[in-house]
Amino acid sequence: MDSILLFSVGTLAGVLNSVAGGGSFFTFPALLLTGMNPIVANATSTMAVWPGSVASVFAYRSEVGKIKHRVPGFVVSSLTGGIIGSLILLKTPEQTFSGLIPYLLLFATILFICGGKINQFLRNKHSFRLGNFPAWCLQLCIAIYGGYFGAGAGIVMLAMLALTGMEDIHEMNAIKTILGVSINAVAVTIFIIAGIIAWQPALTMMGGAIAGGYFGAIYAKKLPQKVVRGFVIFSASAMTIYFFIR
Known about the structure:
Blueprint: H1 2-19, H2 24-32, H3 38-59, H4 61-67, H5 71-91, H6 94-124, H7 132-148, H8 153-163, H9 169-194, H10 199-218, H11 225-245
Helix pairs in contact: 1-2, 1-3, 1-10, 2-3, 3-9, 3-10, 4-9, 5-7, 5-9, 6-8, 6-11, 7-8, 7-9, 8-9
């Protein structure tokens, strides 16, 4: 039963990450509710959804071809920040991280709720453009958060890309996915070396995340994103309240 649940949650996370983001709102709490150590649950969740993001990059290959010249600087920032954030997580005491969980979820939920309006506002500000170096520095900060916890990081990346003048949401999603893959690639490598990934749950979720990530990205342009976002916001808000009162 646990395997079916974890596979289903992984599939849902893969779809959501490719369409609207927010997959970690489901994988991380699901692992916590099994009684897993919070830091192990965070690392396992990152490992589980990472292959789904890789599958999404492949599905976005036509968009990636159009913007590949913009990617290298952002990838360097993402890799560096991912390393820093994941190392900070490993140095965080379990009790401290457990106390931070409700606030991290609240922060990520607020980012998710406000993300669409922020991105729309920034896309309308055509007179302002963030230069490459400031954008790379901002991405470094986002990547540190992504390596440490990650939920909601995709929303902040979309806002950052809007500040650089990008307007095509599908191209922005393509870059966001590449950067998310980069952040989590170094994070999961460090988590594997540290031996803090619960492999059986991770592999079960991973199978679902790969399927969900690939097919979710393919059909992202056809799905009603407002409905998907509403579902994520409702669920994330409920989970945030739960972890505050638990």
